[in-house]
Amino acid sequence: MSAHSGAKRRLGQPTLAMLPRISDSLSFLYMESVRIVQDDTGVCAQVESPRGTERVYLPAASLACVLLGPGTSITQPALATFARHGTSLVCVGAGGVRSYAGILPAQLTTEWLEHQARAWADEDERLRVAVRMYQHRFGTAPSGAGLAQLRGLEGQRVKALYRMLATKHGITRFRRNYDPAAWDDQDPVNLALSAANAALYGVVHAAVLALGCSPALGFIHSGTQMAFVYDIADLYKAKITIPLAFSLAGSMRPEREARMRLREEFRLYKLMSTIVPDVQRMIAPDVAQPSAQDGATDIVHLWDPDLGSLPAGVNYGDEAAGDVEIPW
């Protein structure tokens, strides 16, 4: 093979440098009652008004996720553009009922999915990951504490945080309540907290997918396709969404204000650049993080139980056949 053809083959291979840089992305964009289409210029949101059709072009390549609220529709070409850029779409239903749809770029490496699956399948390692998650939320944890004790301590911590924030904002009584059947009857704090958590789940979901992990393989939560998303989102609620919700106790439009202010909170907290290393530290703290500078690292390998990863794109016919008689 000539040097020219070898260089051409290397350029055509997916590398870690080609993976989406989720930490460089904008966090999320929420839309409702619009039609999202692809035209000759790009992806835009259309809305009909007395002045005719108004268009707002969307930075598809820079968005981690798009939250599609009630009354939103999207065309297949626009959906394909988001898919090419690795942007996740999160459908948010009326009354806070949510359903999630994620888009995975085909060139993603499975390295971190494999770390996650190994840790999840091993009961001892799964317990260690769950303990690390609680320790991350506490800052520390009692030595030798089991999951039941950690759950109890976390419950006490959240109740204490609710009491402190209620006192700070002049709320005489607060109880966390999420009731989609009586959505409009909830108080502003609960409405703001539900809306903020929905946006947080969307952003975490986008980061988990961009890393190549499975949203379903949770270590504390289980039984839902979003279990791992809930695990990771819980790392940030006490610092971001809960204080934000209590600050909107007197708001007339708590859901809308929560989403608007949350984007600024994400920027100040640098959440997008925090989620990925946090996920990596939770599931495989001893594994060195891949560097975007490793541009020559191949993503696709062949698996061998004895030899480990082998290069793909190689014909192993002579080596594999050996002295075995081929029956045709």
Number of domains as seen in the coordinates: 2
* CATH domain fold name of the largest domain: Four Helix Bundle (Hemerythrin (Met), subunit A)
Arrangement of strands in the largest sheet:
1-5-7-8
Q: Structural class per helix/strand content?
A: alpha/beta
User: Kindly state the mean pLDDT as a whole number?
Assistant: 77
CATH architecture of the largest domain: Up-down Bundle
Low-confidence stretches: 7-20, 290-299
What general outline do the C-alpha atoms trace?
flat
Binding site for Mn(2+): 154, 221, 234
Pfam family, one: Cas_Cas1
Enzyme class: hydrolase
Cofactor: Mg(2+); Mn(2+)
What does this structure look like?
This protein is an alpha/beta fold. The chain folds into two domains: 21-101, Ribosomal Protein L15, Chain: K, domain 2, CATH 3.100.10; 111-283, Four Helix Bundle (Hemerythrin (Met), subunit A) (Up-down Bundle), CATH 1.20.120.920. It has helices at 3-12, 76-85, 111-121, 123-138, 147-168, 188-211, 227-233, 241-247, 254-269, 272-283, 317-321; strands at residues 26-31, 35-38, 43-49, 52-57, 63-68, 73-74, 88-92, 98-101, 301-304, 308-311. The strands form three sheets. It has a four-stranded mixed sheet. Strands 4-3-2-6 form a four-stranded mixed sheet. Strands 9-10 form a two-stranded antiparallel sheet. A hairpin with a 2-residue loop joins strand 3 and strand 4 (52-57). The chain is flat, with a radius of gyration of 23 Å. The chain starts with a helix and ends in a 7-residue tail after the last helix. The relative contact order is 0.14.
